[in-house]
Amino acid sequence: MKRIGILTSGGDAPGMNAAIRAVVRAGLSYGLEVYGIYNGYRGLIEEDFVAMNRHSVSDIVARGGTILRTARLPEFKELSVQQKAIANLKKHGIEALVVIGGDGTYRGALDLTNQGVNCIALPGTIDNDVASTDFTIGFDTALNTIIDAVDKIRDTTESHSRCSIVEVMGNHCGDLALYAGIASGAEIIITPEIHPDDQEVIDYLKKLRAQDADRRAIMVVSEKLYPSIHDFAKKIEENTGFVTRATVLGYIQRGGAPSANDRILGGRMGAYAVDLLMEGKGGEAVGIRGTTLVATPIPEALKMKKVWDESIRNVVHQINN
Ligand code: ATP
């Protein structure tokens, strides 16, 4: 193997640049040529390739987003589109790929591997919705951004004795809300996995209000659970006596300089992906279990379901109430 490629796909996440840097530098240290592919799988179709050297990845470890940019190309599910990508890779002598993204990106990587182009997939998404790893690249940074925002919202919530609802990202995975809720001492955490009905939430807030008329309450809620978080806030206000405001954090959660953890995770995973390619492996998803990097065959990784440690669920009841 002489030449490999690297691309980022799906949603961007802080720490992707650290992973790109590691793939390039590790590849060069093995004597490989490394090509950056712009705009995810679309770049494979449009031959948007660039030869990278040590300096191409200088000063990117601290930058959010992805210098290779990212895109979604739904047509990549089609065999004819994949064949075009493979022909372009062959034309440029690129024999294997590292791809960084979420489960959609993994599926594309598996299809390419099954057609002879070894691909190693890294989990790059703030949502932590990839079951084959404890943590995805970008999750820790987004979590810290959310905590910073909730801390600020807390000041005004406290001053006015209000209830604040903070809606966070997650893509059907409650990790961002759960961890942010624990770390910011939220009274209520609502996620796809822990979803009390409206009446339970109302009863609980009324109980808090009855205990202390001046108290405030903070609720961290995963996205996509309520048709309108503002309508939910109105319902809470009408039924509890708490003046209630909802804040949707939105894309601020995707940006910013990656945290130390995400830089280290991206760096370790990127270098490990190149090791796996050098061993002739393909179709593997890189993850971390505890402090150990692991590789899981992509079909198995895609079937895995996230399971919360019972102690994390318990902490919500034991210390946040
Ligand atoms: P995120 O979690 O941030 O959404 P993702 O990788 O899951 O990341 P998707 O948009 O689902 O994001 O997928 C990224 C790209 O992967 C798609 O635009 C498409 O090019 C490719 N892809 C998705 N699903 C498949 C599939 N079933 N087969 C082949 N390629 C796919």
The structural class is alpha/beta
- In one word, what is the shape? elongated
Detail the poorly predicted runs. none
How many domains comprise the coordinates? 2
Distance between the termini: 56 Å
Strand order of the largest sheet: 3-2-1-4-5-10-11
What's the gyration radius in Å? 22 Å
Task: Provide the CATH topology of the largest domain.
Answer: Rossmann fold
CATH architecture of the largest domain: 3-Layer(aba) Sandwich
This entry's quaternary arrangement is single chain
SS strand fraction? 15-25%
| CATH class category name of the largest domain | Alpha Beta
The succession of helices and strands, N to C, reads EHEHEHEHEHEHEHEHEHEEHH
The total count of strands amounts to: 11
Average of the residue pLDDT scores: 96
**Largest sheet, if any?**
7 strands, mixed
List each distinct ligand once. adenosine-5'-triphosphate
Give the helix tally: 11
- Helix content range: 40-55%
What is the topological layout?
Elements lengths: L2 E6 L7 H14 L3 E5 L2 H6 L3 E4 L26 H13 L4 E6 L1 H12 L3 E6 L15 H22 L2 E6 L6 H9 L4 E3 L7 H14 L5 E6 L6 H12 L3 E5 L11 H19 L5 E6 L2 E6 H6 L6 H10 L2
Parallel strand pairs: 1-2, 1-4, 4-5, 5-10, 6-8, 6-9, 7-8
Antiparallel strand pairs: 2-3, 10-11
Helix pairs in contact: 1-9, 5-6
